[in-house]
Amino acid sequence: MSIFETLKERGLIAQTTHEDEIKKLLETEKITFYIGFDPTADSLHIGHFMQLIVMKHMQNAGHRPIVLLGGGTTMIGDPTGKTDMRRMMTADEIQQNADNFKVQMSRFISFGDGEGQARIVNNADWLLDINYVDFLREVGVHFSVNRMLTAECFKSRLEKGLSFLEFNYMLMQGYDFYLLNKEYGCVMQFGGDDQWSNILGGIELIRRKSQKPAYGMTFTLLTTSEGKKMGKTEKGALWLDPEKVSPYEFYQYWRNVDDADVVRLLKLVTFVPLDEIAKFEQMSGQELNEAKKLLAFEVTKMVHGEDAAKKSQDAASNIFGGAGGTGFNTENMPSFEIDGGLISSGIPVLDLLITSGLTPSKGEGRRLIDQGGLSLNGEKVNDVSLVIDDSFFNDGELIVKKGKKVFLKIVK
What we know:
The protein is of the alpha/beta class.
């Protein structure tokens, strides 16, 4: 199976600019392509991971990736998918985030100077020193404002307000593609499906300025079967940094996906062979648990390493089994250390849920209790005004169960 067919069979391709030409190109040549990452946070998240999966598929097939870090474009901010303008970041913040991205990416992508090895470039190297008048004359002249305003990334913002600062973003991304094409022979840009308009802008700029063909491909955004965006936990984004989301929490996120999503996710975010995934397609209910375990293990292994994946898997498997009269094995259970003074003076259960990260708000906590979804040491909580004190702890530990599958050991 060719790389194009692999990406298509796994459901990764959303749109292509020239499908037949791209298919033939990828089958007959080893190309250089790029994906851009704006370092707007200090860690990659699961949305970035989808891009790295595509990049790894391409690299495994012998094509050369360029990772473009947006040290320059992050100074502006991509309006795509945003209801408000991004927070303005300092150059030092952006550089630190970019350095973190490099470390995390090296777990998935092979970087170096050899054939097929990936390279990292930063558009701050050319965008930050550019002469604006020269840029307008060289690049701006090739962009139609009328056409830009039809792009979804701009249309969705016009009613609420689109700054001229952000309006420049498409030109800057197009210029990135043009320079990468000129300097490195990069002929294709990949991106999430929300980047379609920006990708088209770069292709058009290359065609107008260099009279060369260039191509674009977008890949599927990570959503549930109901179309809801994935990658959010109650604490926020599903980060790849283990300090932000522990390997166990990361594992549990994938272990608890809906039955309707597990087979599709195995295709999208793992490298499990398609014929192996096919055996799960006719399964339902409890039978899909093995598929969910496989999904959780494979994704956690890629992000956090095999040792962390095994520990997370063991912890999830061994959480039931009886310790201290609670009916749970607490040895491998994720834990949260709380100030003993808070417990001694008494802490409302809703505050405890927020402090420990189990719920983002008191409203969520109330709903959890009202629906019978919270237990302390095996006893269901029915009172939203319950106050937790030392009497709830056995040997300094309190076991909290949220829903059917989320456990937390609170240690004072």
